[in-house]
Amino acid sequence: MGFLWSPQPIVIPRPEIPKKQIGVDPSMPVLAPRTEQVLDTHKVTATGYTAGVESTGKGPKHPQYGITYSGVKVRRDKETVSTIAADPKLFPLGSILYIPGYGYGIVADTGSAIKGNKIDLYFPTTKQVYKEWGKKDVEVQVIKQGAGKCTEKMLEELSEAIDVYKSVPDSWLDKAV
């Protein structure tokens, strides 16, 4: 076996990595919030719900199918943020919670059975509700107290921020909504 020798150093260019992925594995799940970001913790009973008749009484042909109380479309995104339902007296619309085993949720919905220390986590299908969640008692972390509204723009901006940082950045928490 022979070796090649060259008086000039061989420079191998590094592949360009998009800025949002530098130092962050894109397949990595979201990170729990840092201790200093947690405003409060609450022990709640968390159940799963869907947009379907079994949870909302609405079928796919209903004009409000998949639309939350706040007017945004339901979503489940393990890598950014999902819509959840809560009692607005405890967690006002727009509140951001970290739910262990589920990820970040933003309160966008309410429910007739969701009163007090109960939350409902959105899943696309009943099969996913039963397979991935069911009913659990969990201690949720409040990251931001909502101001009583949740908009598509808020969801998009929060999703983008979490996608980049894998958690909610302080700069986003300081924003007035």
UniProtKB/TrEMBL annotation:
GO terms for cellular component: outer membrane. The keyword Iron does not apply. Keywords: Signal. Residues 82-143 form the 3D domain. One of its GO terms (molecular function) is hydrolase activity, hydrolyzing O-glycosyl compounds. Coiled coil: none annotated. Pfam families: 3D (PF06725). SUPFAM superfamilies: Barwin-like endoglucanases (SSF50685). One of its GO terms (biological process) is peptidoglycan turnover. InterPro entries: 3D_dom, Resuscitation_pf_RpfB, RlpA-like_sf. CDD domains: DPBB_YuiC-like. It comes from the Bacteria. PANTHER family: CELL WALL-BINDING PROTEIN YOCH, RESUSCITATION-PROMOTING FACTOR RPFB. This is 3D domain-containing protein. It comes from Paenibacillus xylanivorans. The lineage of its organism: Bacteria, Bacillati, Bacillota, Bacilli, Bacillales.
